[in-house]
Write a structure and sequence with these properties.
heterodimer, A: Rossmann fold, 6-stranded mixed beta sheet, 20 strands, B: 268 residues, mainly alpha, MetI-like fold, two-stranded antiparallel ribbon, globular
Chain lengths: 345, 268
């Protein structure tokens, strides 16, 4: 297990910053998910930590040692690439043993370890096959086995589940979580899939155009997003600007009574659509008219116009509602996050 | 049979004829003893040409050996030089890259006679004229463009991802080349090897100029016969020339090629 510390890490590509002044600490044995839109610098982060590229500024520390200048082949860090890059000219067993062979481990040890990993990865009787003869899920398992053979302190995964179909995805996700615990590794997972990050990670770091926006436990990322960008990455959100003062949230056209908060002034409320219930119209609630209705899987998405505001609510059991119905909204304000507004006109 | 099929057959047969007819003519010539100018076939067949070619005084066997030696050494060095050069041109961006690409290609564009004289003067100064080393050195720039172009395009297609993967698996520089890059280069090594060997094997002018007639290769031996109109000898030598390079190609291909399942996944 290893603790990783990143200090003011900056990397530019042809004048454009890929990541900018990122500092973070990843605890020993933690599973951290790096989340963000494509091109936000997630993969650059992994390549920096693995040592495949060098930062322009800043330093990388593993277990109290500065490894910034250490070459990839000397670091105790391994990485599984998105395209699993199994060597096509080597068999499954040879692929798994590759790292040990490069380190000149004795033959006996190599063979034992390979067999052990084949069992662990549920890849029996495949050791003599070539990668092109394996299914996508099997290839990804071999790629994992190949790096685990090196008994690394740090495991980096670049979108390991993105090329798999849903059933395989679930299996491999559980396998990765199990390996992470059994091998006692510090793991960094890059993903653009918010559910994957929520389900797997101890903490989530959200990147946005090369900057670290927020790093926290999944539940806090979801319920207390620090900005609009973080909020919308993890599910649908109604962003409502207004004035917050003494338990009242004054918006354009409507006053909401909210729990008393320390913070006040011009804010933007982020109301998750699943925290709004569409109910019978009653006098003490905001009321509006349904303008749109969609049905997605087991849930309905309902758009309700309240004065000038449009709320999007999400939930089950809304089958009997029709467009044009007068309804009330029950908003759980304890779950709403308010963020100060920047660049106020 | 429909028309397109018939047309296809005609094209196929005519291609075969165009390729095989010259061979037939060479074979007939090499076995002829006398051929009247107005006859379709020689009036007398014999082994005069072949007997002479395989005799001591023709120096055919020693020239063939010399040719093979030079071409193999040139191919070997050409390979050693063009793989790293191809990697540099295929993967890296550096100032002056376009110029170097052009310079590498130059030997295939600029007539050898234009630079041959200058090279000869320089080689005389350094004592390389009339030597085996001199001939090998002067063949090298002629074969390099083929190797460099092939390896540059392979490296370009591969990118750096396999090397990155090997780095992650803790392979050092040599191991990365030996265990990950080389297997991907095999098919390219066959085509580059065959091309480089043939270019060197059939080189006449520069071998003659730098070797000064002391380094006897097959083309050097062949030329006077063609020039003096001794078609029996010329045909025999030409056949030996073609067959020996063909046999060597087959050997190279056998030696380098691996089992099928490996080669067909290289360019994925």
């Amino acid at each position: 297990m290893a603790k990783i510390r990143l200090n003011d890490l900056t990397k530019t590509y042809q004048g454009k910053p890929a990541i900018e002044k990122i500092s973070m600490e990843i605890e020993a044995g933690e599973l951290m998910a790096l989340v963000g839109h494509s091109g936000c610098g997630k993969t650059t982060m992994l390549r920096l930590i693995s040592g495949l590229i060098q930062p322009d500024q800043g330093s990388i520390w593993i277990d109290g040692l500065d490894v910034t200048k250490t070459k990839a082949e000397k670091r105790d860090v391994v990485m599984v690439f998105q395209e699993n890059l199994l060597f096509p000219h080597l068999t499954v067993a040879e692929n798994i043993a590759f790292g040990m062979r490069m380190q000149r481990s004795p033959r006996k040890k190599r063979m034992d370890k390979t067999r052990e990993l084949l069992d662990l990865m549920q890849l029996p009787d495949l050791e003599k096959r070539y990668p092109s003869q394996l299914s996508g899920g099997q290839q990804q398992r071999v790629a994992l086995a190949r790096v685990l053979a090196l008994e690394p302190k740090v495991l980096l995964l670049d979108e390991p589940l993105s090329n798999l179909d849903p059933k395989l995805r679930d299996d491999l996700r559980d396998l990765i979580l199990k390996l992470h615990k059994d091998f006692k590794m510090t793991t960094i997972l890059v993903t653009h899939d918010r559910d994957e990050a929520m389900m797997m990670a101890d903490r989530i770091a959200v990147l946005y155009y090369g900057k670290l926006l927020q790093m926290d436990k999944p539940i806090n990322i979801y319920n207390k997003p620090v900005s609009r960008e973080v909020a919308s990455l993890f599910g649908q959100c109604n962003f409502i600007p207004g004035l917050l003062k003494d338990g009242v949230f004054q918006t354009e056209g409507y006053r909401f009574r909210v729990p008393a908060l320390k913070r006040g002034g011009r804010v933007e409320a982020c109301v998750r659509s699943e925290h709004i219930k569409v109910v019978r119209p009653e006098n003490d609630r905001p009321m509006g008219v349904i303008t749109e209705k969609k049905y997605v899987g087991g849930q309905s998405i309902i758009k309700v116009a309240v004065g000038n505001l449009i709320f999007i609510a999400r939930g089950s059991n809304y089958f009997d509602l029709e467009i044009g119905n007068q309804v009330g909204l029950d908003i759980d304000w304890t779950l709403v996050s308010f963020n100060g507004l920047k660049n106020q006109a | 049979m429909d028309r397109s099929k018939a047309l296809g057959h005609i094209v196929l047969v005519s291609i075969l004829l165009v390729l095989i007819l010259p061979f037939l003519v060479l074979i007939i010539w090499s076995f002829s003893q006398g051929w009247a100018s107005n006859a379709l076939l020689p009036n007398e067949f014999g082994l005069r040409g072949w007997r002479y070619l395989f005799s001591q005084q023709s120096r055919m066997l020693s020239s063939l050996g010399m040719s093979i030696l030079i071409s193999l050494v040139v191919t070997g060095f050409g390979m050693i030089l063009s793989i790293p050069a191809g990697k540099a041109l295929g993967l890296y961006i550096f100032p002056g890259k376009r110029l170097i690409e052009l310079l590498v290609l130059a030997p295939t564009i600029i007539p050898t006679i234009a630079v041959g004289m200058g090279i000869q003067i320089a080689f005389i100064r350094y004592g390389l004229a009339d030597t085996l080393l001199g001939v090998i050195l002067v063949h090298l720039p002629l074969v390099l463009p083929y190797g460099i172009r092939i390896f540059a395009s392979i490296y370009k297609a591969l990118g750096t991802k396999w090397e990155d993967q090997a780095k992650i698996l803790k392979a050092n520089g040599w191991q990365r080349f030996w265990f990950t890059s080389l297997p991907f280069l095999y098919p390219g090594m066959i085509s580059a090897g065959v091309l480089m060997f043939n270019v060197s094997f059939s080189q006449y002018f520069l071998t003659y100029l730098i070797g000064g007639g002391k380094i006897m290769t097959l083309p050097i031996l062949l030329f006077p016969f063609v020039n003096s109109g001794d078609r029996v000898m010329a045909s025999g030598l030409s056949l030996i020339f073609i067959l020996s390079s063909l046999i060597l190609m087959l050997i190279i291909e056998r030696v380098i090629t691996d089992s099928e399942e490996k080669t067909n996944v290289y360019y994925l």
